[in-house]
Amino acid sequence: MQQVTSCAKRRSCVMNTNPYHFELRRRKITCFGYDDYDVLCNEREVGRVFSTAIAPHQRAWMWTITACLPGATIRNGYGYEPDRDAAMRAFARGWEQYDLGHLYDAYANWFREVRSP
Fold this sequence. Notes:
Layout (H helix, E strand, L loop, with lengths): L1 E2 L8 E5 L4 E6 L9 E6 L2 E8 L9 E5 L12 E4 L2 H14 L3 H15 L2
Antiparallel strand pairs: 1-2, 2-3, 3-4, 4-5, 5-6, 6-7
């Protein structure tokens, strides 16, 4: 797994996991401040990673998987970690644990239909 150092100074950050490529992109509109990122996979939003003051002790970074089809439930598709890199590793583990690759194309098609005029 490749990690990019000094991600906080860049507009977007990259983390490679096989076979999916996750990228962090700072959110333009946020209620959590500067440390709020969308997690993208092939330029599609599939999750979110952000720092929050209401997290459990010493676990200020929350990650969550947001790619989900209507009616589908991802149990425990979120968590808290001590730093952003740990949150991204946990996100990648969660993605692999729930084997979301088979739903990825279906989610992308549904999302495209919902957004079309």
